[in-house]
Amino acid sequence: MDFATIVFWLAVLGLLVYIVSIYNTLVTLKNRYLNAFSQIEVQLKRRYDLIPNLVETAKSYMTHERETLETATNARNNAATILQAIADGNVSGSKLAQLASAEGNLRGALGKFSVTMEAYPELKANENMMQLH
Given 18, 40, 73, 87, which is the most exposed site by the fewest CB atoms within 10 A? Predict the structure, then answer.
């Protein structure tokens, strides 16, 4: 073998190592992304699972605030539905935007709920409500 052939094969070997390195980096980044989204999904599901407890505790105190409760429940169900669609593998920019919008609606509904709690001191003083707030 002459010098040119050795240099050629070393260049080919270097290129293969570089390609494998890029591939491994991409796989690692994809796994990090999936893990990060899974962590977000777990926290969002936990949040969604706590909302029915909040609603049940408040129902005994706020029968006249039905609209606020319905808004919070509907916002929670909408956000949970979108999150489930994303968790099923339908991850896209539009779905993430829908999830962000649904989260904003849920945040607004829970904000109204907090204002209602402030307006009713007997509700605020309840130990269960203080734990949920």
Answer: 18
Helix axes 3-59, 66-87, angle to 10 degrees: 160
Pairwise CA distance, residues 6 & 12, whole Å: 10
When computed from its CA atoms, the radius of gyration of the chain, rounded to whole angstroms, is 26
Decide if 129 contacts 62 (C-beta within 8 A). Answer: no
Does the residue 3 lie in any domain?
no
**Are the C-beta atoms of 56 and 100 separated by less than 8 Å?**
no
pTM of the prediction? 0.52
**What are residue 17's phi and psi, to 5 degrees?**
-60, -40
Q: Mean pLDDT in runs of 10 for the chain (133 residues)?
A: 91 97 96 91 88 76 69 86 84 84 86 68 54 56
> Distance between CA atoms of 4 and 2, rounded to whole angstroms?
6
Cα gap 100→97, rounded to integer Å: 5
Domain enclosing residue 96, as ranges: 38-132
